[in-house]
Design a protein that fits this description.
single chain; alpha+beta; conserved putative lor/sdh protein from methanococcus maripaludis s2 fold; 3 domains; seven-stranded antiparallel β-sheet; five-stranded antiparallel β-sheet; 2 helices
Amino acid sequence: MAQLAAPEIAAQRAEAQSKLQGAEAQRGEAEAKLASDESTYQRLKAASATPGVVAGNDLEVAQRAVEADRARVESVREGAQAARSALKSASEMEGYLQVRAPFDGVVTERNVHPGALVGPASGSGVGVPIVRVEKTSRLRLLVPVPEKYVAGVTEGANVQFSVPAFPKQAFSGKVARIAHSVDVKTRTMPVELDVTNRDGHLASGMFPEVVWPVSRAQPTLFVPTSAVARTTEATFVVRIRDGNTEWVNVQAGEVDGKQTEVFGDLRDGDDVAVRGSDELRPGTHVTARQSSADAKGSGK
C-alpha cells in the first residue's frame, strides 16, 4: 500500500553488514591460527616420544597455545553470531518500510500523501493511521436485543434486515456471537451477526433495520386486547366460571394484531369477558354468550 523511506534504517543495516563481515574475517583468522598451532602441537607431541628430542616445557607451551586458540575461536564465533542477529534485526526493520495490507480489502481512508512525513504518532501523541483498510466481503452486524427478547436468541439463526440504501432488498445474517450479558444502562444484550457481502452492496457504518424473530420456549395464551383491564392496583382479565365473574391478575406480553399475550392463572379454553372492566366486580352473575372466536383464550 505504501513505501516509506528511512535513511537511518538503511545505515543501520549497512553498519550491521560491515560488522558481520569483520566478525567473519576474525573467525577465519582465528580458525587458521588454531589449525596451525594444533598441527605444531601434534608434531611436538609425536617427537616427544623419543627421550631428549623435545623439551617438556616446549610441549606444554604448544598445548596452552592450542587451548587459547580454541577459546578465541569460540569467542569470535559468538561475536559473529551476534553480528548476524543484528543484521537480521536491521533487515526486518527495513522490511517494515513496505506497508502491506494484512488482508484483501478496500482502502476507505487515507491520511497521508506522497512526500509526507510519517511517524508512530502525531503531535498530540495519538497515533494516526496512514490508511484504513476494511474487508467488505464479510461484515459484522451488532444488534442490541431488548432484555425481554433474549430468551429466543440462538446461535446459527438467520435474521433478516434491510438498509435505507436498498429499501426493496432484503439481507440476512447469521447469529454468530451472543454476549450473554445485559447492559445495565440500556437493558439490552449485544448479539453479533456475520453477514456475507459478496456483491458489495453493504458498507460498514450503515444503520440497518432488523426484523428480529421472537419466540417463546413454551406456548402462551392470547386474549382480545379489550379483555385486559388495568387499574392503579392491578392488570387483570375477567374470567367467567359457572356464570360468575372473577378477576385474574395477569401480566401483559406482546401484542399481535387485536390480541394480547397474557401470563397468569389462565388455562386454554377459559371464558373471559371480551371487554374487561373493573365494573364487573368479582362474583357478579352474568350470562355468557360467545360473540366471536376472540372471546376465548387460545394457546399460541
